[in-house]
Design goal:
Blueprint lengths: L12 H19 L2 H12 L3 H29 L2 H18 L5 H11 L1 H14 L7 H9 L4 H16 L1 H22 L4 H7 L8 H6 L4 H32 L3 H12 L1 H16 L1 H20 L3 E7 L2 E7 L3 H24 L1 H4 L4 H30 L4 H30 L37 H30 L2 H7 L9 H22 L2 H5 L1 H10 L2 H10 L7 H10 L1 H15 L4 H32 L10 E2 L5 E2 L3 H4 L2 H14 L10 H4 L6 H31 L11 H12 L1 H7 L1 H25 L2 H37 L5 H23 L2 H16 L3 H23 L6 H4 L10
Antiparallel strand pairs: 1-2, 3-4
Helix pairs in contact: 1-6, 1-7, 1-8, 1-9, 2-3, 2-8, 2-9, 2-12, 3-5, 3-6, 3-12, 3-18, 4-5, 4-6, 4-9, 6-7, 6-18, 7-14, 7-16, 8-9, 8-13, 12-13, 12-16, 12-18, 12-19, 13-16, 14-15, 14-16, 15-16, 15-19, 20-27, 20-28, 20-30, 21-22, 21-32, 22-26, 22-27, 22-32, 22-37, 22-38, ...
Pfam family, one: MFS_1
Protein name: MFS transporter
Membrane topology: Multi-pass membrane protein
Amino acid sequence: MSPALPEAAAEGAGRALWKSTAAFTACFAVWTIFSIIGLSIKEELGLSETQFGLLIGTPILTGSLSRLVLGVWADQFGGRRLFVLVMLLAAAATFLTSFAHSYITLLIAALGVGLAGGAFSVGVAYVSKFYPQSQQGTALGTFGAGNVGAAVTKFVAPFVVVAMGWEAVAQIWAVALAVMAFVFLLLTKEDPGRFARQRGVRAVPSAAAQLAVLRNLQVWRFSLYYFFVFGAFVALALWLPRYLVGVYDLDIKTAGMLAAFYSIPASLFRIYGGRLSDRYGARAVLYWTFGVSVLCTFMLSYPPTTYIIEGIAGPITFSTSMGLVPFVVTIFVLGFFMSLGKAAVFKHIPVYYPNHVGAVGGLVGMIGGLGGFVLPLAFGMLNDLTGVWTSSFALLFLLVSTAFLWMHLTIRRMENAAARAGQAEPTPELPEMIGMGEPGASIPPRAGAIKDWRPEDRKFWEGTGRPVARRNLWISTYCLLLSFAVWMVWSVVVSRLPAVGFAFDTGQLFWLAALPGLSGATLRIFYSFLVPVFGGRLWTTVSTASLLIPAFGIGYAIQTPDTPFLIFLVLALLCGFGGGNFASSMSNISFFFPKREKGNALALNAGLGNLGVSLMQFLVPMVTTLGLFGALGGGPQVTADGEQVWMQYAGFVWVPMIIAGTLAAWFGMNDILCAKASFAEQAPIFRRMHTWLMCWLYTGTFGTFIGMSAGFPLLSRMVFPEVNALNYAFLGPLVGAVSRAATGWVADKYGGARVTFWVFVAQIVAIAGMIWFLNLGSFLGFFAMVLFLFFASGVGNASTFQMVPGIMRIEIDRTAANLPPPERRKQAERESAAIIGFTSAIAAYGAFYIPRAYGSSIDATGSANAALWAFGIFYVTCAALTWWVYSGPRGILRTTERGAVPQPVTA
């Protein structure tokens, strides 16, 4: 058994790490040189796509195959001098490449250039000897960031090719690598393992002993993972310039710079991936890497397609394709997650195989490097066979899906085996490593959720609970803000569709404004029960990521007036993903805070989340007229008065924000294990009368807010066509969101039922004012009443939710008096969270029925008065119900809200 690695890094570790990273950057720049000079060679020699793929892949083949041997030698004799030797040999081969001008001689020269790629396994063995296990992920992630050398080549080499020819690139890169070799030799020292061998403390292991460890199955499974995260990275780094030139007709300089836009995140963020692997474990990082990569490669693999639908009046034709900006954004995201995955794979090698880092790392690196050889060749062959450019990404989609499925099935099998054996301890981050590795290797435990959560305990809350709860609150609020923005985006978009050539009638436009409310409200019914089932962290992450589907879809579909109305109906329904998120967000946050702060916390989460509507109604009109990315995001549309607009940015502008929110939710939020519950445990709320009464009341407050947000822009355009209401539409949701966030304390102090009653009185006054000023034809008066209605609904949104925990405490004490106080408290909190989510689901139908009521009223009577009168009568019923059941003399909350202190429930 080998001695344990030291807890602190060895002397000179920092210098060895950064000098090795710089040397590996130079090696990688040389290793991928054919991705640029190969384009000139292809044109000069008239190569086919398959010949071109073989040429750019040959250096990758040599670099991959040499990694295993070089890794073993690095473990046996030390990595420093071997690193220098490899760089000098690669530099010589690169210089000689400039004198090769036939296809055969270029292939032979490329074999020698590939030695630069073999330096990776030498560097891994060398750097790992300086660091303890707890820092291996960060150290090797930093070293692996030398992949950025590919970006250096793509940025600089095209300009050298244009100015001096491809031969000059080979000569300059060779000289630079030779200089780096001598600098590395002068500024670094031998690794601690070599000193130990020189003193006789450790014997030099034989090659057979080094290779014996490769019999372990998990080493080959790691190799499969690395075949995608590294092999596909190298393949795309080589292939993207050719792809961009062929698909988007770019020149070589622009194609090289955009390809570097992929290479940089796929390299530098490997450092961050190492830190994440050290902190959260490689399992979580790999799950995210494969999951996002499946989504990205699927989107990239979808070819430009023309659809023909046999309509009633004849064929309906429309086309879909990915523009340059969406392509670059998607490839950036793919590169980012692949960089995290590269670090996650190599996190475990020095932990499980501290004496065989070179051999194991060499094999894994070799298999990964072979991906960089095989895949470009396969890309070229697929192009020749299918004639479809996106076939390369279809191959990557199949590859990552296979790796993802194999990893997940292995993990589930190990977890089930542990459960059958009655093992209470969680499985390691990568369960396939159970019982594997060298003797004495410590298996890192799997990161878990919060098991002990007692917010009603003031000491626990002040010392531990509040910081965690606040972090989850702010991340949840940001994600909810994006959800509301995507949910309500059609309220602005529909008002501009006729101006850019879409021949939709008034009824169709109101349907597009209303359908997100219908689907969002329906999804809320299901979402409200999913947080206790799946956990708040996982569900917030998944639900936020789902917003990418309508965001991309709107951006693609809105660029051509030929897109049929059916496609817009589907996209409007998909925007309901944003509406559904509210129920799960509120349900999740309610678990984190004590009752005395629950009202304010829910008000902040919902109120600031509601700001997404105002943000969207302010931001979308601005970004669609500025053309932030010019023609790169697709061409502009020209309105009837000659104005240029880029309506696609109504969808695309949210994409980077959604990606940031998804990452923040996964890495920043927590699950509370005691909040886990099945649907059956939440089902009793359907038998409680108060569930349905609160649905009625919350429809009067939140249904008003979200319905007016969806319907007001189009309504004002219909009844006041002389006013550009889009300039003011964002003010209503802004007032409603701010009033909700700022008045949660009012309900906590004076009682939710008392505040809710007066809210409905105010809403009745607001509706009467809207009818009055509408009949007078005064937009200013009408708009003032609309703002007053938004303000009142915001206050009521906070106060109605504040009522729910108090109602359920009383109801559970009445119906389950035989349960111990802690069990009654837990059941009350569980049902309160479910009711909050379910009532929000029912109330969200306001986003559907209010726009539809306006549209029906205008179609039937020529005015919106009939709809407004119906709303006023509804508010009268809400006020009467609140007074009779909750706040009046016979109301169940009157005693607790008028100063009497209920008996505390002690844990």
